[in-house]
Amino acid sequence: MHEKGSPELNTLVGKLDRERLPVHVAVIMDGNGRWAERRGLPRAAGHRAGAEALREMVRFCAELGIKYLTAYAFSTENWKRPRAEVDQLMALLVEYLYRELEEMDRQGVCLRAIGRPDELPPDARKALADAVERTRDNSLIIVNLALNYGGRREIVDAMRRLGAEIKAGRVEPEKIDEHTIQAYLYTAGIPDPDLLIRPAGEHRLSNFLLWQAAYTEFLMTPVLWPDFGRLHLVQALLEYQRRERRYGGLKA
Ligand code: FPP
Questions:
Q1: Which residue minimizes the CA distance to atom 24 of ligand 1?
Q2: Taking the model in full, what pTM does it have?
């Protein structure tokens, strides 16, 4: 992790165009296991280091003025991992939420969950509900934790709810458009991510924000998530600012 306030970091931050920062940054926190294995540590130590990286990322995004940060913390597929690892991740989530709550609230972080948090173990549900409730009126940055999240499941859930509205006669099928569908997603009311960061050298979307990532800029990096620090984020933001977003149109 690069020191906060290092000359190198300050120089790069100075190069950022503050008017063109992404409004919404999404991250797939991948590579925790490899980070731990390379150090001869248990995988749980990698997840712990990953949670620290997330804490730094939240702080730095808030400082920079990024309005939304969405982090993939636990997917609908992660239940397939050994029971012990799932339990460790859930315990870490509870610990993280209680430990960080005070600080997040003081900073003005509004914490939300996307996914199906209702299927998490009771203590995780409780910690999450407490954190969401305590920070609900904050508005400096909205941090969405994707927990028990799957992009396809999100679309299934949206379609079920929309189907029920149609059945009840409250929605006319011919009036459905993209905005209607957006309004039924877990991310209703949140702008689509402008930038999605995928560390650990993988080149997959892994069922993350399938609908929302239609025009998102992707940034893949070999850096493992626990090593992804402030300097890496600024480099990612500078790369984002070098790109030209055309949304299917032609060069301006
Ligand atoms: C993927 O790395 C990461 C996860 C499945 C969990 C991400 C969770 C955290 C960063 C910490 C917990 C979050 C909170 C909010 C406390 P991997 O284990 O698949 O890594 P590998 O591909 O190197 O094995």
A1: 33
A2: 0.96
